[in-house]
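Chapter summary example.
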Amino acid sequence: MIQLGMKQFISYFLGLMFLTMSVVHAAPNLEVNTPAINALKNSMQARHTALASHYESGAIGLTANGLIAVRDAKALPLKDRRGINALVASENSDRSRLYKEVAVANSHPEWEASIQDAFAGRWIDKAQGGWYYQSAGAWQKK
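The structure predicted for these 142 residues follows.
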């Protein structure tokens, strides 16, 4: 066991306390706005009208990691099956870039994964009744 003198102990304790307080108070601002974030939100909002009926039919759902996925292609009208993959890919690209931009805007790019997790919870919380989301690896209907 390491023996510390009283001064060393106090210095160690205060340093640990400061580090703990820094971590506790360091929470990302998920509402931060920049031109890049606004552009991504606008792109996602414009796409949402094309995706909304697919959420409602259960064809697509919200994944546990803050993205979307085709859940049941058979729930799609035949005419929409080809285009849904492109819509989902575009949405996921914008979502991934959004998480990165929010982390950068918070001056903590290393927070990207935590920000993505926080948004994943928000998307699911705000989902309308009847939409599907992933929980513990399984699809659930809200």
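To summarize the output: The longest strand covers residues 132-135.
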